[in-house]
């Protein structure tokens, strides 16, 4: 049985909710990622920040990324999956919530990785990928 830990990209890194968006963009560049999980002061998941969030929610509105924080853009209930969850649970979570990136949390509630569409493409069958795309991108 394939688990979330088997397909995730390990070594994901939090960005504190208090960190400014300028630093978030630099961290995304340095890590070569398009999204960062946002942590609260107790290192609990409180959102996910994407490069698109920074552009649309800050830059395109003429706001200063050095004055806005990751927490300013954290909205809704963040979704995550346990590292020992079956891949079918991963797909269900991503499909049901129409999300493209999913943080992976271990038994100690610590961030251990992220699952993206690219990770799915590397590990799933063409049929599984087709069904995922149909459900997540359906209008």
Automatic annotation (TrEMBL):
It comes from the Bacteria. The keyword tRNA-binding does not apply. PROSITE patterns: CBS (PS51371). It holds the Pfam family CBS. The keyword Zinc-finger does not apply. Residues 8-66, 68-131 form the CBS domain. Keywords: CBS domain. SMART domains: CBS. PANTHER family: CBS DOMAIN-CONTAINING PROTEIN, CBS DOMAIN-CONTAINING PROTEIN CBSX3, MITOCHONDRIAL. This is CBS domains protein.
